[in-house]
Specification:
Blueprint (H helix, E strand, L loop, with lengths): L2 H8 L1 H4 L23 H24 L6 H27 L17 H12 L1 H9 L6 H24 L16 H6 L13
Helix pairs in contact: 1-5, 3-4, 3-5, 4-7, 6-7
Length: 199
């Protein structure tokens, strides 16, 4: 059904290279404190920033006229899911004592159906890796439950989009690859245009 965009999406890692500065693995310090906060506060704020980004992304995407029918319905459902994720994380943030990350500025430039879908697949594959990367740092049972509930949906959405464009549901094979904070934010480069602010 989407044969016309398969070729472009097959090249997405070349279009949006997943490059990380040397030492990024060691610098993934949410558990010890970063701009997002310390401990679970940092984990929740980092996840909240990503969900703000994704909600804005799908809002902009769904305002284009590139998609119709079942694909358009699916993308609208994904946007609704992202907004539900925001509510979950806002509630978790209220339970933490350490401030809440503010809604960031975003900018998206969709030029064609092919390009828009290629970016969508790339963006949606960021979420599962980002959540997986923070899982070992979570201490609160409530935060862990919320993160796992969201991670599951993000992974299903990513799998569906991967298959739409002719990729394997799980491009990394039977074990998903976690992303560091730096890797995750690198994948939003050019679209997330403001520095995270926690108040």
């Amino acid at each position: 059904m989407l044969a016309s965009v398969t070729a472009a999406c097959g090249q997405q890692d070349k279009v949006f290279p997943n490059t990380v500065a040397p030492g990024a693995e060691e610098n993934n310090q949410v558990g010890g404190g970063t701009v997002f906060g310390e401990g679970d506060v940092g984990v929740v704020n980092f996840a909240l920033l990503l969900e703000y980004f994704e909600a804005d992304f799908y809002d902009a995407l769904n305002k284009t006229d590139f998609f119709s029918g079942k694909i358009k319905d699916f993308l609208r459902t994904v946007e609704e899911n992202e907004r539900e994720h925001l509510e979950i994380l806002r509630e978790l943030s209220k339970q933490q004592a350490g401030g809440t990350v503010q809604k960031p500025e975003t900018k998206f430039n969709f030029t064609s159906r092919k390009q828009a879908l290629a970016i969508t697949v790339f963006v949606e594959n960021t979420g599962p890796g980002a959540y997986l990367g923070q899982a070992p740092r979570i201490q609160s049972a409530d935060v862990l439950a919320g993160a796992l509930a969201i991670h599951t949906i993000e992974a299903r959405q990513a799998a569906a989009l991967n298959m739409m464009v002719g990729r394997k549901a799980s491009p990394d094979g039977p074990m998903a690859r976690p992303f560091t904070i730096e890797e995750s934010l690198k994948r939003t480069e050019g679209m997330l245009i403001s520095t995270p602010v926690v108040k």
